[in-house]
Specification:
This protein is of the alpha/beta class and 306 residues long. Helix content is 44%, strand content 16%. The chain contains 13 helices and ten strands. The structure holds pyridoxal-5'-phosphate.
């Protein structure tokens, strides 16, 4: 039994009306730890356990850390998560509720990550949040499930942070002979590391992340994500924080599901009838989810933009 669930795939009447075409939602916001990340991280943890790991180490205060903590609890394996002081009280609580050992260290993720890496002994496994072929193999199961369902999308919309989800979906499409189906890769302004890489012709490092979509805040995408953009059709779209937040609030009203702005960024394409979707009539949206934003936080961010 894998650690992720087979998530529901539903046709959304309300988003279809907004987008002017059929919109299918793959509801990975319903994964037990709140995001798609458990697909890849669950598979990687099981594999590292088989290879002899006795502890999982992570430096993510976001959904990757939560997925590692969840996997560790399910696999009866201790988890240590090192997060920077900037990590929200909500995220710290969630990690501790999953029984992870939580170490708060450093002013930024770089420092927390350096400590986490220094703690990795010979019987520990370090779980990277997006740059690991095992993760991509696990994320690809999302597409296996869509293929098995009989739904035939002509485009897939997803959000891009470090590009792990993108690599997984691209792998899933390829291994199901759907390599011709374009991927629409969405980021927010201030976190658009994939867009910048496509423009530059190589992965580039952003100076800083300025978006509220913290789960998209990888300063640089993994090399494999960039390579995919050389090998297949990937349409890069950048939306504002305002659009992502608006989509979160609309989605809560329409589907009674609260997602992070990282996920709202993708949904914004349906709500704003993005021209990039014009060629497509059956669009699959990966509802990647995210557990770290409360409704109060989303309202606060929205108010700050007014
Ligand atoms: C991690 C995450 C992303 C981005 O995934 P990458 O694999 O880093 O590109 C998007 N949305 C949510 C909710 C996430 O947790």
């Amino acid at each position: 039994m894998p650690l992720h669930i087979e998530s529901p795939l539903v046709e959304s009447h309300l988003l279809s009306l907004s987008a002017g075409r059929a919109v299918w939602l793959k509801l990975d916001s319903l994964q037990p730890p709140g995001s798609f990340k458990i697909r890849g991280i669950g598979l990687a943890c099981e594999e590292y356990l088989k290879r002899g790991a006795r502890r999982f180490v992570s430096s993510s205060g976001g959904n990757a850390g939560l997925a590692v903590a969840y996997a560790g609890r399910k696999l009866s394996t201790p988890v240590t998560v090192v997060v920077p002081e900037t990590t929200s009280a909500r995220a710290r609580d969630l990690l501790q509720l999953e029984q992870a050992e939580l170490i708060v260290h450093g002013a930024s993720w770089q420092e927390a990550n350096a400590l986490a890496l220094s703690m990795v002994g010979p019987t520990d496994a370090f779980l990277h949040p997006f740059d690991d072929p095992l993760l991509w193999q696990g994320h690809a199961t999302l597409i296996d499930e869509v293929v098995a369902s009989g739904v035939r999308p002509d485009a897939v919309v997803l959000s891009v942070g470090g590009g792990g989800l993108l690599c997984g979906v691209a792998e899933g499409l390829r291994r199901n002979s759907w390599g011709h189906v374009p991927i629409v890769a969405v980021e927010t302004e201030g976190a658009a590391s994939f867009h910048q890489a496509q423009k530059a012709g190589h992965p580039v490092e952003l100076k800083k992340i300025t978006s509220v979509a913290t789960s998209l805040g990888a300063k640089q995408v993994c090399d494999r994500a960039f390579q995919w953009s050389q090998e297949r059709s990937i349409i890069s779209v950048v939306v504002s924080d305002r659009s992502a937040l608006f989509a979160c609030r609309r989605f809560l009203a329409d589907h009674r599901l609260l997602v992070e702005p990282a996920c709202g960024a993708s949904l914004a394409l349906a709500y704003e009838k993005a021209t990039e979707l014009a060629p497509f009539s059956n669009v699959l949206f990966v509802v990647c989810g995210g557990a770290t934003a409360t409704i109060e936080q989303i309202q606060q961010w929205s108010a700050n933009l007014e």
